[in-house]
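Per reviewer request, we include the raw input and output of the structure prediction for the construct analysed in the revised manuscript.
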Amino acid sequence: MLNNLIVFLYSMKIYTLHAKQNLPITVAQAWDFLSDPKNLKTITPDYMGFYILSGADRPMYPGQIIQYIVTPMLGIKTKWVTEITHVQDQSYFVDEQRFGPYALWHHKHFIKEIPGGVEMEDIIDYKVPMGILGQLVHPILVKPKLEAIFSYRKEKLVELFGEYQPTHD
């Protein structure tokens, strides 16, 4: 009985990925780029096989459903359906997985003005599927893959918008 409870509680683990990046652009430029779902393909590694099926034909709004095909691991194509649940113009938006490779995916995107540019912050709370097995493969496959995707994203945004240079007074 106690073992079953421990296994159950362990399988409920929720992970968090936190990424920040500064760019030498305005809040409006950052918002225009990041809030357009079509630009997600640009900042996603090619090996992910990212393809938008539907839902990216309008400006972002709460309740928007976007359907993608992704190849997250082992060459297996997966349908991923997200809903934009919250939007605060030029400040933040939230997307949540409705169907896809994770047991939970809640991704908050924040944009704020800083001297000489913007700070972009991503906070992703996620849970891997398959209970204890998912927990075991998380540090070997899932976490490194997510970190690599966000590292690629960071490099691609610098390539597109330039390197942030803090201003000194």
